[in-house]
Amino acid sequence: MTSSAAPQPVHASPSAVEPGLDAGWIARTVAVALDEDLGTAPGRDVTTQATIPASATGTADLVAREAGTVAGLVVVAETLAQSAARLGLPVPDVTFHAQDGDAVGPGTLLARLSGPTQVLLVAERTMLNLASRASGVATATAAFARELAGTGAQVLDTRKTTPGLRALDKYAVRAGGGTNKRMGLYDVAMVKDNHVVAAGSLRAAVEAVRATFPDVLVQVEADTTAQAMEALDAGADFLLLDNMPTPVLAATVAAVRERQGRDGVPEHVELEATGNLTLARAREVAGTGVDHLSVGALTHSAPILDLALDLHPAALR
């Protein structure tokens, strides 16, 4: 298929998102994805290797088929390199015409790839699977970021990510203008109802975390204003206000702000709203004065952004 994408500015790097994706993580993830497609390394692509000579070279365009925010271009070079190594062929050249985090429209040229045609086609699906997913997450996040602009509230992700792809999902959230919360169970304590039941009380749960892991922030989940006050009394750093109707949420925020700086409560307690947070409701929730809205749908329900790899016609001869 011929790409009609017009040339775009050339970028030296596929991303300006900080922090970037770890190179080791990219290499491991691409290897697993290629194993799924080709079989155990080096594997084979029975269609491509049967129909296209190893000596054939071509050019292909990575393009957006729809409007959104692109992410995941950082996997392209590694996917090409590993695909070439499996085939014993040279690594294609790649020129990036967009960066992760860019807003794109239908037909936007993201990258131009030139090299062995077999390598281009073997790498195609792995590149598209990873970049299309990341771009979908970035697009969903960007919609929330735009809706929250000027409110002072930020959109956060959650741990509701695809197993094995959390680093990519959270990178994509950053590319879309969102903020990462905790990366896992190891970096922030989250005291929820089951922890309270197991520990015997909310205070006992918070004190146990403080005693065992004094270096971590402690967040407590609250479903009511009374629970939020109890969490403040127990010494929580951060409150997760879960599934509260907007009037209850606003009242809880006001009550927490009233307690700040008194009776051992920090000068500013971080407040995060979560549960049933749709795009249509985002500004309303932000208007209650919360610092953050955490939205699991950014990573567990975002549709992919349609990306494609179009081989130039000359490569078909």
Q: Strand order, main sheet: write it out.
A: 6-11-10-9-8-7
Label the CATH architecture of the largest domain.
Alpha-Beta Barrel
Strand content: 15-25%
Give the N-to-C terminal Cα separation. 13 Å
Major sheet: size, sense and barrel closure?
A: 6 strands, parallel
By helix and strand content, what is the structural category? alpha/beta
Name the helicity range.
Answer: 40-55%
CATH class of the largest domain: Alpha Beta
Organism: Isoptericola dokdonensis DS-3
GO cellular component, one term: cytoplasm
Domain Quinolinate phosphoribosyl transferase N-terminal: 45-135
Keywords: Glycosyltransferase, Pyridine nucleotide biosynthesis, Transferase
Q: How would you explain this protein's 3D organization?
A:
By secondary structure, this protein is α/β, with parallel strands linked by helices. Helix content is 40%, strand content 17%. The chain has a six-stranded parallel beta sheet with strand order 6-11-10-9-8-7. The chain has a four-stranded antiparallel beta sheet with strand order 3-5-1-12, with helices on one face. Helix 10 links the parallel strand 10 and strand 11 (292-294). Helix 3 (76-87) runs antiparallel to helix 4 and helix 4 packs across helix 5 (166-175). The longest helix has 32 residues, at 117-148. The model has no long low-confidence stretch (mean pLDDT 95). Belongs to the NadC/ModD family. It is an enzyme of class 2 (transferase).
